[in-house]
Amino acid sequence: MPIAVYALALMAFSIGTTEFIVSGILPAISSDLSVSIPTAGLLVSGYAAGVAVGGPILALLTARFPAKPMILLLGLIFAIGQLLCAIAPDYGLLMGARLISACGHGVFFGLGSVAVSKLVPEHRRGAALSLFVGGITVANILGLPAGTAIGNAFGWRASFLCIAVMALLAVAAIALVLPGVKGEPEPEAPLALQAVQLRHPQVWTSYFTIAIVMVGSVSLGTFQVPLLIEITRIDPATVPLFLLLGGAGSVVGIFIGGRLADWRPLDALFGILLAQIASYLAVMASTTNPWAMGISLFASAATGLAFSTPTQVRILNAARAAPNLASTFISTAYNVGIAGGAFLGAVLLNSGMSYATMPVVGIVCSSLAALMALASWVSERRPALA
Question: Which residues span the domain enclosing 160?
Answer without folding.
Answer: 1-180
